[in-house]
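Annual report, structural modelling task.

Input specification for the pyridoxal-5'-phosphate complex:
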Amino acid sequence: MHIHTASKSQLEAWSTELEADYADISQRGLKLDLTRGKPSAIQLDLANALDSDLGGDYRAPDGTDVRNYGGLDGLPDMKALGASMLEMPSENVLVGGNSSLTLMYQTIAFAWQLGVGESGTPWSQEPAVKFLCPVPGYDRHFAITQAFGIEMIPVPMTDDGPDMDVIECLVADDHAIKGIWCVPKYANPTGCIYSADTVSRMAKLGAVAADNFRILWDNAYAVHDLDEFQPLTSIFTHCERYGTQDSVIQFTSTSKVTFAGAGVAFMGASAANLNGFKQQLGLATIGPDKVNQLRHLRLIPDRSSLLQHMAQHAALLRPKFAAVLDALEAAFADSDLAEWTSPQGGYFVSFNSRPGLAREIVRLSGEAGGVLTPAGATYPGGLDEKDRNIRLAPSFPTQADIEVAMAVFVVCVKLASVRQALAAA
Ligand SMILES: Cc1ncc(COP(=O)(O)O)c(C=O)c1O
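The model returned the following structure:
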């Protein structure tokens, strides 16, 4: 289907066909959901041994009785596991609670109130605070910066990560820019992996940015490959080379390794950043949930068991991603209606319609029983100026449901495109 070159009569013929298909789908009473990137129940089942693996033995490998208070940093072996995910030394890792998003929120809250590291000017005392937001990106990141009233500046994503030419100019020119959100491996939602050049240039930003500028490096999908493990260049190693270790704070978690609601989160940062963070964290808690840390260590004691565990997730996720991509390929490969990403891992496929149609497609699909992530969610403030990006999340529904949801989606994309073209004809 090539809308751009189609005659009016061809558009009318397609319209008649698609309106009938849509009416047919709409009356089927479907209830399908491709919205949030949650693991499915069978993925969660892979970690069910967490339920019983302590068996009354509460001693961690280092001898700690995990039932008691203390250990603000986390158990040494858990720090080592986090270090292997973040690819940085254990002494630079802090083990948090069940959510890396909480650690990100706290990082910003502490920076806002008291400053970053051990002595930076609190962001709240700055005349203006701005953040760079690669787009499309993760809605919950943008929600945090929005909640603090931080001005968000969208930066376009490329296949190699955010556009570094744009970022380098902005960061050097405007010291009101205090940070940037990054998902460096299998970015949410495009699925790209930042190239070695992008990582190296990111690591250099600290040399030209404001002193209290921080890269929030959310490596949520560090080990979430669909096939072979794909390496990500270590930003911390590059920062050590350029002397910019304080400019980056890393995060990851086991939310999509074990239990999404009861996993373990990690933060990796320079000694100065970590000490500043711990000073505040130590006021709020006497220590994290080390019982959960030990349960995790019994299930996944090291990196090699982690990767074996992730291979089981991959086996469950591969056919679901294939179902989405096959449907898109079959419907749109020979068309001018859409473009989309084919990620090697992570949780999402990013889809772009013709401009001005994403909201309409999401509306049509929702009304026919196929709920999609709201259009615009992948942009700061929910504002996708071109109104074309839709995030598809195949992990949670069954494969059969994905196939039906994608059939609905395809009809909605075609119908919205044909209606738009006819209105302009
Ligand atoms: C990029 C990214 N970061 C963080 C999270 C949430 O992580 P956590 O469960 O550790 O808070 C998600 C969840 O979808 C995500 O996509």
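Residues 37, 99-101, 138, 183, 188, 218, 220, 253, 255, 265 surround pyridoxal-5'-phosphate (CB under 6 Å).
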